[in-house]
Amino acid sequence: MSQGDWKVVQGDALTRFLFSAAKKERFAEFYTGEGADPATSESFCRDVFRQNLAQRVVNPAVALSCNEAVIADENGVVSFPDFSPLPFHVQRWLAIDLYAPSTGTFAFRLGTCGGVRVWCRGAQVACFTPFTRNFMQHTDVEIPLRAGKNSLLIHLDELAEREMACALQMVYLGAQALSAAFPHSQVQAEHQCTSQHPVVSQTNACASHLLTLMQQRQYGPQADALLYSALKHISAREEGSVFSVLPLLQIWRCHQGEYFSDVMFRRIKSTLMGYRYGPDERGCDAMRFDTENHALAFHAAQYLAGQSFPDGLFIASCRKGRDQQAIAKARLENWLSVVEAQGLAELNAVVSYPVDYRGLSALALMADDASLRDRAGKLIKGVQA
Question: What is the pTM of this model?
Answer without folding.
Answer: 0.79
